[in-house]
TrEMBL record:
The keyword Acetylation does not apply. GO terms for molecular function: hydrolase activity. This is Cysteine hydrolase. Keywords: Hydrolase. Residues 24-209 form the Isochorismatase-like domain. It comes from Novosphingobium decolorationis. It comes from the Bacteria. InterPro entries: Isochorismatase-like_dom (IPR000868), Isochorismatase-like_hydrls (IPR050272), Isochorismatase-like_sf (IPR036380).
Length: 216
């Protein structure tokens, strides 16, 4: 298993020439009660929330950095309802022996609410049904309307919604950076392995400290 710290990362001085705040968006993926809080669905299977809380602290710092630099912040959020649940996902859950496992981030009940982070007026907000933030949403149109060509990816989980969104972003022509310490998975090996694959194929890795330095 790769160690995230051993993977190649772009340092702050080099990153400064690659991320123009006017053309860059920080994408914050699925920092929500059901995924990130012990009070949400994750509390039923996750025994250690420390890595999640640490990643959210880095995201909070990135949000502050981007606001000071005049960059765009885009908040992604899963919002589900019984009538819009994916048949494929329901079938997958049944075949895994987890019927009802798709009932997460419901529009009612608070599970879909943001956790520790919150958009402000002028930020992009996207509601999605599944993993890819571009699928069946207007994220691409909103980014292009603002002249965005570069994305800083953060959020959770690294191997699922961050991965899916980053891959589509690359296919749509965006320059993709994965902020490694501002992404998180429930299992470290999934986090590190996904970053390794993404760094080899669709983007560059960097850190929250490097982003801070580049935007300063």
């Amino acid at each position: 298993m790769p160690d995230t710290a051993d993977l190649p990362h772009v340092a702050g001085p080099d990153l400064a020439g690659m991320i123009d705040p006017v053309r860059t968006a920080l994408v914050v993926v699925d920092i929500q009660v059901d995924f990130a809080s012990p009070e949400g669905v994750a509390g039923t299977f996750c025994s250690d929330f420390a890595p999640i809380e640490t990643a959210i602290e880095r995201i909070e710092e990135l949000i502050a950095d981007m606001r000071r630099a005049g960059g765009t912040i885009a908040f992604m959020r899963v919002v589900t309802r019984p009538e819009t649940d994916s048949d494929a996902l329901k079938t997958l859950m049944v075949r895994r022996g987890m019927p009802g496992g798709e009932a997460i981030c419901r529009a009612e009940g608070g599970g879909a609410d943001y956790y520790r982070v919150a958009p402000q007026e002028g930020d992009i907000e996207i509601e999605k049904l599944l993993f890819d933030s571009f699928h069946a949403t207007d994220l691409d149109a909103q980014l292009r309307a603002r002249g965005i060509d570069t994305l800083l990816m953060s959020g959770m989980t690294t191997e699922c919604c961050v991965d899916s969104t980053a891959r589509t972003a690359f296919h749509k022509g965006y320059n993709v950076f994965l902020v490694s310490d501002a992404c998180v998975a429930y299992e470290e090996h999934l986090h590190a392995s996904t970053l390794d694959v993404l760094a080899q194929n669709i983007g560059l890795l960097t850190t929250s400290a490097a982003v801070h330095e580049a935007l300063a």
